Amino acid sequence: GAVVSQHPSRVICKSGTSVKIECRSLDFQATTMFWYRQFPKKSLMLMATSNEGSKATYEQGVEKDKFLINHASLTLSTLTVTSAHPEDSSFYICSAMTGQANTEAFFGQGTRLTVV
Amino acid sequence: GQNIDQPTEMTATEGAIVQINCTYQTSGFNGLFWYQQHAGEAPTFLSYNVLDGLEEKGRFSSFLSRSKGYSYLLLKELQMKDSASYLCAPNDYKLSFGAGTTVTVRA
Q1: Average pLDDT over residues B80-98
Q2: H/E element holding B86?
C-alpha cells in the first residue's frame, strides 16, 4: 500500500520554541492532507485540512497562528507548532489522500511532542 | 459539521463475534471508513464503504446504510490481537473521526 512518512517520530522542545513536523507521501501524490491531534486514550481530533497550493482549512477552536500548516507540494505538508507550551504536548498525526474516488486515507506514524 | 456516535467500550471473548455500530450526521458524504488503532500507534485502514450493503474482508465486514446514516463493523473469530480502538470516519471531504470504540478481547 501507499506510504506516508512523518518526521520526527518524537521531539522534546523547550517552552517558547517552535517545532516543525513533516508529512511526506512517498509513492503517491497527496492532493489533500489532514492533521490530527490525539490526547492519551482519546480519539483523533481533526485540526485542519490542507489542499496542495491553497490555505489550510482549520477546524473550529484550532488557532491558525499557533499551528501553521503548509502544503507546498503534492508530496509534502508541514505542521509548525509555534511558541510551544506544555499544553501543546500531544501526539500529532497526519494523513494523506490522493483525491481519487474510493481510496483510503494513509496515515503517517505520528509525532510525540513533549514541551518542557 | 459532523456528528458521529459509537459505543465507548465493548468486551468479548476469543473466538466470538463483535458488532460495532456507528451512526453519523454529515453535511456531505463520500463514503465511510473504518480504522483500527492500537495504543500509541497510527490508525490502520480496515474498510471503506461507498454504497449501501455489506463488504466482507476476511474476518472483518462492514455495512453501510446511507439513508439511515448508519454503519457497523463486524469482527468475527476474535483474536487477542484484535484488542484495539475502532474508529468510524464518514468522509464528507474532510476526514473526522468518532470517539472510537475500545474493544477488549479476553481469553
Answers
A1: 90
A2: strand B84-90
